[in-house]
Amino acid sequence: MAGAFLDELRALLGQPQVLVGVDCEPHERDWRGRFRGRALAVARPGDTEEVASVVRLCAARGVPIVAQGGNTGLVGGSVPDDSGTWLVLDTRRLRRVRNVDADNLTMTVEAGCVLQAVQEAAAAQGLLFPLGLASDGSCTIGGNLATNAGGTQVLRYGNARELCLGIEVVTATGEIWDGLSGLRKDNTGYDLRDLFIGSEGTLGIITAATLRLFPAPATRFTALAACDGAEAAVGLLRLARSRLDAELTAFELMGRHALSLVARHFPEWPQPFPEAAFAVLLEASAATSEGARERFEAMLGQAIGDGLVGDAVVASSHAQSRELWRLREAIPLAQAREGLNIKHDIALPVSAIPGFLRDMEASLPALAPGLRPVVFGHLGDGNLHFNLQAPEGVDAAGFLRQHEAALNRHVHDAVMARGGSFSAEHGIGALKAAELATRKSPVAFGLMRVLKQALDPQGLLNPGRVLVTDPGVPETPTPPL
Ligand SMILES: Cc1cc2nc3c(=O)[nH]c(=O)nc-3n(C[C@H](O)[C@H](O)[C@H](O)COP(=O)(O)OP(=O)(O)OC[C@H]3O[C@@H](n4cnc5c(N)ncnc54)[C@H](O)[C@@H]3O)c2cc1C
């Protein structure tokens, strides 16, 4: 059966666009090295029609499909399971910028466009596409929408969902829904676009999107500020918001442990405040340069005067700004070099963050002595990466096996008790599907299952991801490699 299926696939796409055997390996392992599966094959369609024909073939032959863009997802949702029966549908040949409409402030791009290429295509027209992630040289716009990615500028521009006006989707039966629209107002029935955004390849394959653009700011300022506690960082956020309003475009928190990992793995990069409990990376953007730098520096001056900030540096050039951003962007890379870790991608009301961090600092050592909490993230929108690195010198894989479930429960219980979310921007994938089944309200979970059944009746699109196949039997993630 597999041989006949592969022949049919080759007939649809041409031999070079169907990978098998060792050629599939890069598509079978996730970015973190936590999940490794085995694919029946990798299909590389070149346009929407080809995606639709592949999906129709899979529907006819009962072959499960996992869509894959840049494979930078952090929850194990972009790789096949280990059965060797799934098809990986690689979207990266769908990479045309179909249209940029400067008057309407929109652009229509195909799903496999790398995020950085989308940003550059907007910039070439003097416009801004503000989604920005540390993975933007590899991740695709289809993956960004499928995971409803967040990133560093959500406090000003919103997440991927808010940056998307329309999408084109291949349904589970292989039909093409052209929902590409540049309209900001369209109340004609249920919002199907928002159903597919954030569905992680479980309801349909996104093949193109119409995105919102903004005028490119004329000027931009970056600063790094040292704060001696999370309360001070939250105070700085309040002050920056009140003094800069919409000019505040990024507000990133970095804890001391996070920056010490960067110092260890990237020692050549200077760190202005290595001893600070927290460093905050702030960015302000303005439509005109008139008075903007003065406003930014006056705000920082007041923060120092009010005792919220111990010291601060303001970048005086684009190169210096990049150096400061590089520290922030290097944290996940430094963590990956340090070894396996437990990631918590949590959202909390900003006001609850200092109390949460105090609670964790007091309670975690009893659960796992020597644990290294690596705290960083998008404080401006309440999203923290509260990651736990195994103690120095222990076997990280063994440590995770022993402690991961209890630590997850402890952290997520504390998050939920404060009205938070256990997945702010990375999604659910395979890693958190069992947790979703237990933590989502039964009504919401039931509605999600009804939608899945309606849109993917054969259950072939990324099965077991987001929604466990049987909610009574939570699936355990693939063990760490
Ligand atoms: C260094 C680093 C930094 C990161 N920083 C951030 C961050 O700040 N904010 C953030 O939100 N995320 C971040 N991420 C996570 C990741 O980059 C995002 O989730 C990104 O949106 C995934 O895009 P991708 O193209 O790599 O998708 P993939 O990893 O290929 O896929 C992710 C999920 O989307 C599905 N999918 C992919 N393409 C499609 C499609 N066309 N149609 C339907 N389903 C599809 C897959 O099946 C899978 O479930 C980071 C990752 C890394 C490695």
Please, could you describe this protein's structure?
The protein has 481 residues and is of the alpha+beta class. It is 36% helix and 21% strand. It has 15 helices and 19 strands. It has helices spanning 2-13, 25-28, 48-61, 115-123, 141-146, 154-157, 192-196, 230-244, 256-265, 292-305, 318-338, 353-367, 396-417, 433-439, 442-455; strands at 18-19, 39-43, 65-68, 86-90, 97-101, 106-110, 127-128, 164-171, 176-179, 204-212, 214-215, 219-227, 248-255, 278-286, 311-314, 341-342, 345-347, 372-378, 383-389. Strands 12, 13, 14, 15, 16, 17, 18 and 19 form an eight-stranded antiparallel beta sheet that branches. A five-stranded antiparallel beta sheet has the order 5-6-10-8-9, sandwiched between helices. Helix 1 (2-13) runs antiparallel to helix 3 (48-61), helix 8 runs antiparallel to helix 10 (292-305) and helix 12 (353-367) packs antiparallel against helix 13 (396-417). The protein is globular. The structure holds flavin-adenine dinucleotide.
Question: How are the SSEs placed, and which strands pair?
Answer:
Layout (H helix, E strand, L loop, with lengths): L1 H12 L4 E2 L5 H4 L10 E5 L4 H14 L3 E4 L17 E5 L6 E5 L4 E5 L4 H9 L3 E2 L12 H6 L7 H4 L6 E8 L4 E4 L12 H5 L7 E9 L1 E2 L3 E9 L2 H15 L3 E8 H10 L12 E9 L5 H14 L5 E4 L3 H21 L2 E2 L2 E3 L5 H15 L4 E7 L4 E7 L6 H22 L15 H7 L2 H14 L26
Parallel strand pairs: 2-4, 3-4
Antiparallel strand pairs: 1-2, 5-6, 6-10, 7-11, 8-9, 8-10, 12-14, 12-15, 13-14, 13-18, 16-19, 17-19, 18-19
Helix pairs in contact: 1-3, 8-10, 9-11, 12-13
The structure holds flavin-adenine dinucleotide.
